[in-house]
Amino acid sequence: KRHFKECISFIHQCRLHGGNCLVHCLAGSTTVVVAYVMAVTELSSQEVLDAIRTVRPVANPNPGFRQQLTEFGGVAARKVRRQLKQRYGTSPFNDEEEIKALLPVGRAGPARTEGARQGLVPRARDRRSTTPFLLRVKRTFSCIPTCLK
């Protein structure tokens, strides 16, 4: 949890500059991605994790990391969100809409097909990728050798 703010800022800066960021760790990479998405949306850790599992089914933070995410939710996530906005300005991305589109029916709207997911893109700006954030995460994991997954 003590590294969330630094990791979130780094990931956000990479995205704003049109780049990607590989988050890798033996046990904490999913936790860092969930914390980032919580910071740039108003979604709970469980909602974000459910959405991530639609593109990465093996995502499963251990109980200690889940507790850290629960503690990060609410006030801490709002504080980081506010700091990101102060430092980088209004986000050009539609992260909350993209994440909600991945949730099952009844959670935050209708589930989308793969084709519909690909249609969700951030607002156009300079050199940014038009591929939704979690789909880029999925593609990044797809190119990692099986022995490292």
Automatic annotation (TrEMBL):
Catalytic activity: O-phospho-L-threonyl-[protein] + H2O = L-threonyl-[protein] + phosphate; O-phospho-L-seryl-[protein] + H2O = L-seryl-[protein] + phosphate; O-phospho-L-tyrosyl-[protein] + H2O = L-tyrosyl-[protein] + phosphate
An example Gene Ontology biological process: signal transduction
Domain called Dual specificity phosphatase catalytic: residue spans: 2-72
Key words, A-Z: Hydrolase, Protein phosphatase
Any Pfam family matching the protein: DSPc
The keyword Hydrolase belongs to this UniProt entry's keyword annotation: yes
GO cellular component terms, semicolon-separated: cytosol; plasma membrane
InterPro entries: Dual-sp_phosphatase_cat-dom, Prot-tyrosine_phosphatase-like
Membrane listed as a keyword: no
Domain of life: Eukaryota
GO molecular function, one term: protein serine/threonine phosphatase activity
UniProt family annotation: Belongs to the protein-tyrosine phosphatase family. Non-receptor class dual specificity subfamily.
Identification of the protein by name: Dual specificity protein phosphatase 15
Protein's organism: Pterocles gutturalis (yellow-throated sandgrouse)
UniProt lineage: Eukaryota, Metazoa, Chordata, Craniata, Vertebrata
